[in-house]
């Protein structure tokens, strides 16, 4: 009797798609984020129009697809290095960023994933810039 072949299925890495408001710029990544954080710095507040940005770091190798037209705006960081904001030219939605200080990785606007179960932030950066009218969970450290 021939041996039976047992199919061992590799666990498929979870894929998530972050998209802009008009849905034309779509970034699909595979697997879990390396780090999820909030940032209350002035630039993140300007970029999002909110009190803080909710962001997730993925390795560039986790990118499955970038679909749609993207515009890039490059700005300087406080440390004098570049940060590129990648956004939709149609609706202006900021989908992800690249930073000189973060080679091989991207920082995705976590709110652009339509995933209510997306991991919670572990830290808030530039906490000194945050207004005093909200209180974060104790699990969010000052980082
Ligand atoms: Zn758009
Ligand atoms: Zn920031």
Brief summary of the model shown:
With 143 residues, the chain is mostly beta strands. It contains one helix and eleven strands.
Order the strands across the largest sheet as they lie in space.
6-7-8-9-4-3-10-11
Radius of gyration computed on alpha carbons: 18 Å
Bound molecules: zinc ion
Tell me the strand percentage band: 35-45%
Oligomeric state of the chains present here: single chain
Based on secondary structure, the structural category is mainly beta
Uncertain spans:
none
* Mean pLDDT metric: 91
Question: Which CATH architecture is right?
Answer: Beta Complex
Helix content: under 10%
Which CATH class applies here? Mainly Beta
Q: Please give the number of β-strands.
A: 11
Helical region count? 1
Largest sheet: 8 strands, mixed
CATH topology: Metal Binding Protein, Guanine Nucleotide Exchange Factor, Chain A
Distance between the termini: 62 Å
Order of helices and strands: EEEHEEEEEEEE
Label this structure with key terms.
Metal Binding Protein, Guanine Nucleotide Exchange Factor, Chain A; 38% strand; globular; eight-stranded mixed sheet; 11 strands; single chain; three-stranded antiparallel sheet; 143 residues; binds zinc ion; mainly beta
Describe the structure.
- There is one protein chain.
- The protein is mostly beta strands.
- It has a single domain (15-131), classed as Beta Complex (Metal Binding Protein, Guanine Nucleotide Exchange Factor, Chain A).
- It is built from 1 helix and 11 strands.
- It is globular and about 65 Å long.
- The structure holds zinc ion (2 copies).
- The site of one zinc ion has 9 residues, from loops.
